[in-house]
Amino acid sequence: MSLTKQEISSTGRLTGRVVKIAGGCLLAGMTLLTACTDRSDEAAQFFLKGNLQLQKREYREAIRYYTEALEKKPDFADAYNNRGLAKFRNDDAEGALADYTRAIDTDPDFGPAYLNRAEARLETGDAGGSLVDLQRIEKQYADSTFYQLRLGDTHVRLDEPARAQIAYDRALRLDPANVEALTNRGALFFSQKAYEPARQDIQKALQLNPKQDAALNNQSLLLAQAGNYAEALTYVDRALSLRPTQPYYLNNKAYLLLRLNRPAEALPLVEQSIKLADGNAWAHRTLGIYYLNQKEPRRAVAAFRRAEQLDPSVDALYYYIGVAELANGQREAACAAWARGVQAGDPQAKAEQAAQCGK
Question: With contact defined as beta carbons under 8 Å apart, do 285 and 273 qualify?
């Protein structure tokens, strides 16, 4: 299954500097002054219209209005920032990143743009760049629960779990009802196999917001870990009802369907998941399990090896590689895979190694 944290874009900050229209015009005479004021006033009006559409989640309309504002006032840093947020929520992370950078280039002290760019950099795989942005505004935002949340997310991506937990703990001290911090800290606990604190965080998140899709998905992970696959399926279905094309949720449902012996339903879901997010090692593991169950060991090995290339730390991966290699007639490769699993602390791999390899 795939571990899912809260969607990064959900706490992008809509800038509070509503009108910043004085700068950027050359006041060389009364005629130019009037023209400059008119353009600035029009820019402010388009900006406010964009904010309204953004709040209504009409992202394309918001982008259109912000673009109009920027045509009237090309140095309108707030409009770049908010257009970036609209693009980000419209699944255009690269476009958002460009706009946040333009906002910062226009106003190097614009804190919200750094916070938003840190989110976009995380989304595009640049965790190091995200940390640089967050460090740039640390003094300004240290007491912000949203800042600490994103700092935690960044440390997770940098494989620094201790620092991530410190940041999540701070976020929750600042706001105990920060649902995203609860969701993401719960996901961190789950990844460390600390299932009881993970359960507590996820349950509290769902009490605060029963429609928190990431928390619903993670509750399904907790139930699946305990072997309650049918109940887990109901939670991931609720998550998918809110975000039908979220690739991790699709993969998790496919995995549960395999556990419930419903492979025909599982295959299209995991294939769709991989199409949407080919870099998710857990989905390739699920595909390997499907092929293994269908007595197609060569295809299973290929899927598992792809998962290994992407993330060798995926749970029980070397156990499955060994099973598939053995089914494919490659005992030596199977024993080597189980040996890797033993090194990783996988009890299933250890049992297979003892049974099949004489160790």
Answer: no
Give residues with Cβ within 8 angstroms of 244, minimum separation 6: none
DSSP letters of 201-260?
HHHHHHHH-TT-HHHHHHHHHHHHHTT-HHHHHHHHHHHHHH-TT-HHHHHHHHHHHHHT
- Asked if residue 281 has pLDDT above 80, the reply is yes
- Where are the CATH 1.25.40.10 domain residues in the chain? 1-10+32-141, 150-209
Residue 10 DSSP label? G
Nearest Cα neighbor of 180 from 6, 355, 2, 4 is 6
Q: In which band, very low, low, confident or very high, does the pLDDT at 13 lie, cut at 50, 70 and 90? A: very low
Residues 6+ apart with CB under 8 A from 217: 4, 235, 236, 239, 246, 248, 249, 252
Q: How confident is the model at residue 38 (pLDDT cuts 50, 70, 90)?
A: low
CATH superfamily entry for domain 150-209: Tetratricopeptide repeat domain (1.25.40.10)
Q: What is the pLDDT of residue 25?
A: 34
| CATH code for the structural domain at 1-10+32-141 | 1.25.40.10
Nearest to 63 by CA among 45, 76, 51: 51
What one-character DSSP code corresponds to residue 8? G
First to last CA, the chain: 30
* Distance, CA of 86 to CA of 96 (rounded, Å): 8
Token couple for 223: 């139930």
Residue 359: pLDDT band (50, 70, 90) is low
- Residue 29 above 60 pLDDT? no
In whole angstroms, what separates CA 203 from the centre of its chain? Answer: 20
Query: DSSP character for 109?
Result: T
In angstroms, the CA 95 to CA 203 distance is 35
| pLDDT in the model for residue 35 | 42
